[in-house]
Amino acid sequence: MSPSDAENKFITWIQSFDYRVLQHQEDVETKFVIPMFHHLCYPEECCSRKCSLSSETNGNLTNKLENVQIYFSTDDVVKQNADTSLIIIIYLSPQSNNFQEAIAQARFYSIYLKPLFFVVTNGYQIKFFKFLLYHREECVLDKNIYSLKSNTTALEFYNNYNFHYIKNIDKNTINTLKYSQYNLIEKSLRRHNLQEIVAQTDFIPAIVREGDRLIVVKPKVVIECNLPKAFRDGDCLIQFSGVILRGCKIKLNHQDILAQLMTGLNTRPEWGCRRFIKQIDDNAFEVILGQTTVILSDLETADLCLCIDVICQAYKQSIIECENILETWDFEFIEFLGSRGVHLFSVDAKLWRLMHDFANEFNYVQGKSEWHLFQQEEISIRVSRGIRDHAFILPCPVNYFSLLPNGIINIVYEINHIHLQSLENGEINSWHQDIGTKGTWTATYTKQWLLEKFIPKVIDYYAQKNNLSASELKRNIADYGSKHTPISDIDDIRELVPYLQDIQSWLNNYVENIPAVLLKAYYQTLTNLVRNTDSSIEGIDYIIRNLTLMEAGNTKDRMNSNFSKWNFKDALYYLDAQVGRINNYQYEKSFQADLITRTFIWIIEHGKTRFSQAQLNAAKQALLPLWEQSRFEMRYVNPYRQRSNL
């Protein structure tokens, strides 16, 4: 059909259409919407009344899918998604004028389907809206059916909304505000009502989660983030709605997110807890994002922080979940020959060669015994029966001498993409469910299996076969166990010391102010725990020196005490004063938190302390979240921060 024929057929149909034939909502669909888009050349195969929305969508709106038509640029049902969506049509009953509810409904679907336009109609009034990503939609047509009957108007309508024209529109272009709108805003800024004018460029607040993609929108800022998955790097893109920074897109990689954005979450910009923000005056902040520095207003900075809080909490949680599920926290990360993993333990080169030889000899295709469970690899050990991979074991030489018979080889649990291949399809639940002895092995279980089953089997096999000394082979297995007693199992106050030492090391590296909310319970419960310590404690001078430094750095609450005459009772009084002080402030200098932690460690290590079970349990409960944060930041934030400072 030639374009002229299509135009004529549409004009003929629209001019002959009689609104009075519509009695019910179903009539609006079958007698108006479907015929109109048919005459606009939209193929029936490109239409769907079913759309797959996020599991987090509002149930009330989802129930209204029966009055929705969705047109896509393709007739392939598999490819009918947000990338190919063109138009969403919400149709009402002929008697209904509740357009605002229908517009809200269409706006909701548009967040997920990202069409070029959405349409609301009752068969008499028809409203076309241009969907603008993150901005409020723009109404581009609002007419009744009779105003479309003139030849000129009908032809213009056909040319603007027919299938062939719409499907060739670039979504990236249509989602950009028109120059004329910006020009109007620039001129209006010189007039009155500045706040109202500037607000016209604001984004529409929203939070959208689709698998490992998270989008957080506030009026002044939007952040689109690809969350890390199974230790793979994530990234994010930051955009601003303000007139000055419109069009500015700042992309941050995995290193930028961890090194710059991850500390100081849920704090106000002016508290000095976020390392990428520097206050210039009461209404402006200098913000460093990756390699880009921008000056933001207080409102823009506040919205940026709100977006970052949501993004970074999800980003952090994604990393923590992977560590928890694969049980890798107790092991050191290692990157070697393009592979990533964790160091389980070490053996000498002779034993490693026997382990590798055994794995190749007991290839799963060459036998059916319980030990034929390996797939042949060049340098690594792949525990697999062909259908299911359990673990990948990689040898990592310590140095150039590692290849010598007495050289040391680090045994690495490799985080392999094949190992976690279900993630490629976004099947997060499947990945989680696959962890276990019958599926993907955790690092902890792999280490246990290697030390308790595999290596003893290898030693026994080759000791008999090659007349080797079993005791000699066992001698050079170096297992670096954790120095921490599980905190739930602690019943001795001294077992808290390794946790406190980790926190102190973290605080010593923490260059920003730290939110007081993280320290309040910690100060209180540890002070209560050491309260009944023998006053004859060794090293009182060390304790007093720490408290003196705290007082010197505390310009807000100077106690004006004569430290030279202090005893341990005075030190406890001062610790009580710190508990009272921290409850009155929003943030604490990390230097002071470091000093008070050193004081707690010294008292526990060198004092004779009487404590109740309730006091110990309260201290353990307060200590755990602070220690978990220190563990995360020392493992993920500090290494990247140090690199960025080089």
Provide structural commentary.
The strands form five sheets. Strands 1-2-3-4-5-6 form a six-stranded mixed beta sheet. A six-stranded antiparallel beta sheet has the order 15-16-20-19-18-17. It is of the alpha+beta class. The protein is built from 21 helices and 22 strands. Helix content is about 40%, strand content about 20%. Helix 16 (about 495-510) packs parallel to helix 21 (about 615-645), helix 17 packs antiparallel against helix 19 and helix 17 (about 520-530) crosses helix 21. A hairpin with a 4-residue loop joins strand 18 and strand 19 (about 390-395). The model is unreliable at about 50-65, about 420-430 and about 555-560 (pLDDT under 50).
Gyration radius from CA atoms, angstroms: 33 Å
Q: Low-confidence parts, pLDDT < 50 over ≥5 residues?
A: 51-65, 422-428, 555-560
Give the mean pLDDT: 84
DSSP strand content: 15-25%
Q: Would you count the extended β strands for me?
A: 22
Total count of helical runs of at least 4 residues = 21
Main beta-sheet annotation:
6 strands, mixed
Please identify the structural class as seen in this structure.
alpha+beta
Distance between the termini: 66 Å
Classify the helix fraction into a percent range: 40-55%
* Main sheet strand line-up: 1-2-3-4-5-6
The outline comes out as flat
